[in-house]
Amino acid sequence: MRAMTALIKREYLEHRGAFLYAPGILLAIASVAIFLAVATGHTHFDLNARQMPTGVGIFQASVGIVFFLWSIYLLIGLLFYFADSFSADRRNNALLFWKSMPQSDFKILTSKALSGLTIFLGLVFGFALVMAFLLYLVLLIVSTQHSLIAAPGLFEAVQSYVQMAIVGIVYFVLTLLWHAPGLAWVAGLSTVFQRWSIPLAFLIPGAVVLLEYLYTIRGSSRPIADFLSWRFQGIPNEADAIAILLGQVEGGPFAVIGLIFADINWLHMGFGLIFTTAIIYAASEYRRRRIDA
Fold first, then answer.
1. How many CB atoms lie within 10 A of CB 142?
2. 73, 90, 160, 290 — which has fewest CB within 10 A?
3. CB burial class (10 A; 0-12, 13-18, 19+) of residue 215?
4. DSSP for 42-71?
5. What distances in angstroms separate CA 100 from CA 18, 96, 105, 129, one per listed residue?
6. Rounded Cα distance, 44 and 114, in Å
7. How far is CA 56 from the centre of its chain?
8. Complete DSSP assignment for 246-270
């Protein structure tokens, strides 16, 4: 356990720029821009009193959008992280050091995968929570400029914030687990092809889908293209989730968790995690057998 903790800590130290410094700078720039736009009155809303949701609904929906955007950042960051980390030690001669340690290649690569599921996810989710808090402050300012917009009270805001935080961490974890096979695919390719892994990760399935389109009759089903399209759709249905958060559908934020669980095909989730584990194991065997440090 101590060895695994040390390996994960090493991943954090080597890649904190993409998951700590970069999102911190992004958050600072976005926060300053939003506050300046709101504070100086450079906002205009065409409001209809009959269609206006409550202040709680506006806050919850805004936080939901923030979580969605930060989850996209997390997936993009992990895409480049796995494309680099599974082969970086070959470029800087660190592979000789790690092969001299009493740690297997499978354990080293597993630590890289777990880093994405734990510490890097936690860092990005932390920035999402900070932005969610700042959104409440923005909503307070906007409510003083527009009579139809009412910011939720402190008790309501805290209650909604805690509920949305629970919804957010469930959404982040399950989204990452759902897309884990794609990230593992990039990571496995990087072990063999290094920096070419990202273009190849899209080129190979793209070529397969193209061949499928060329060699199937018009109007017939294309199972590979349909499967890939379905497999990498987001969860849950965004329109349904926003309707719940705005209060247009009863249930509150926790109903979104039920929507997420209902939208996930758990059988395919299991197959995807098995595929992810298999890719990591295959990559570790390739490193152990074929790469001479």
1. 17
2. 290
3. exposed
4. -------TTTPPPHHHHHHHHHHHHHHHHH
5. 28, 6, 11, 41
6. 45
7. 25
8. TTSSTT-THHHHHHHHHH--HHHHH
Let me know the angle formed at the C-alpha of 24 by 19 and 26, rounded to the nearest 5 degrees: 100
CA dihedral 80, 73, 68, 36 (to 10 degrees): -170
List of residues 6+ apart from 119 with CB closer than 8 A: 8, 11, 12, 19
Q: Which two tokens stand for residue 133?
A: 């808090």
Nearest CA-CA partner of 125 in 23, 29, 242, 259: 23
pLDDT in tens, the chain (293 residues): 677 887 888 888 888 888 899 999 999 998 888 877 777 765 555 555 455 677 788 888 889 999 999 999 999 999 999 988 877 766 555 555 555 556 677 888 888 888 988 999 999 999 999 999 998 888 888 777 766 677 778 888 899 999 999 999 999 999 999 999 999 999 999 888 887 888 998 998 889 888 888 877 666 677 888 888 888 777 777 888 888 888 777 788 899 999 999 889 899 999 999 999 999 999 888 877 765 54
Query: What is the spatial distance between Cα 128 and Cα 264, in angstroms, rounded to a whole number?
Result: 23
- CA dist 188 and 82 (Å) reads 9
By C-alpha distance, which of 236, 264, 265 is closest to 251?
236
d(CA 72, CA 287): 30
